[in-house]
Amino acid sequence: MVTSILNRFTGMGLSVGLLLLVYWLTAVAAGPQAQMRAGRILSLPVVKLLYVALVIAFSFHLIAGIRHLIWDTGRGLERAQARRSAWLVGVASVALMLVIIYCAWLSRGHAR
Amino acid sequence: MSLRSPLGQVLGAGSAKHGVHHWWMQRLTSVALVPLSIWFLVSLLSLPSFDHWVVSAWMAQSSSALLLILLVLVAAWHSQLGLQVVIEDYVHAAGAKTVTLVAITFAHVLIGSAGVLAVLRVAVRGAAP
Q1: With respect to CATH, is domain B6-125 assigned 1.10.443.10?
Q2: CATH 1.20.1300.10 fits A2-111, yes or no
Q3: Which residue among A111, B4, B121, B126 sits deepest, i.e. has the most Cβ atoms within 10 Å of its Cβ?
């Protein structure tokens, strides 16, 4: 129940992420000045907060989506199994989120 | 009691078979997005910096250009299918529903094409001089 509605919310959030991605790609294509201007907007504190939200949304949506694909094969639909996999989705998506944040932190240190 | 025939009442409401296609495309795009999104995240985090020449050199490689185009197209498609279901579930007024659905579809076609155009521009031009 909760994972299902969360999958929708995170999916909607990732649509915003797609918008940001295309904005960034367009700015890169428009040249160095345009990318710099976009970079100023994309590195605003509010937008950085959005990246954290997007990482959380991505981690959850990816793991919960894989669970949905497994369900589509007809497996794991018993109530007890679904309850167990809901916990698994929670744990796995938090783990994935931490891995992504750790890698992002590492690569940022590398850039300096 | 309406004088409209049962057939007349459902005409224009769409084919009953569209749902299966929607469902199948949602699954197909989600399967494709698993490797595409992981590839994108790993590549993005492996870039040494986000300076213009670094990013455009990466985008200009044919392998990353191809995968970026696929990512943008498949993600836009998946997003459109997902948001369509949300709108169909929560927007009940017939007029508002149609207008929102059309707007969402147009917006996604625009986002998808803009993303493809941007990648192509960099790929055709080659990395920044």
Answers
A1: no
A2: yes
A3: B121
Alpha-carbon distance of B86 to B100, in angstroms, equals 11
For chain B, what are the domain ranges? 6-125
* Assigned token pair, B101: 């659905």
Confidence of residue A112 (pLDDT cuts 50, 70, 90): very low
**Chain A residues with CB inside 8 Å of B34's CB?**
62, 65-66
Q: Which residues from B are below 8 Å from A28, CB to CB? A: 52, 55-56, 59, 118, 122
Residue count (chain B) = 129
* Nearest-angstrom CA–CA distance, B88 and B104: 12
Interface confidence (ipTM) of the complex? 0.92
State yes or no: pLDDT of B2 exceeds 90: no
Tell me if chain B has a CB within 8 Å of the CB of A86: no
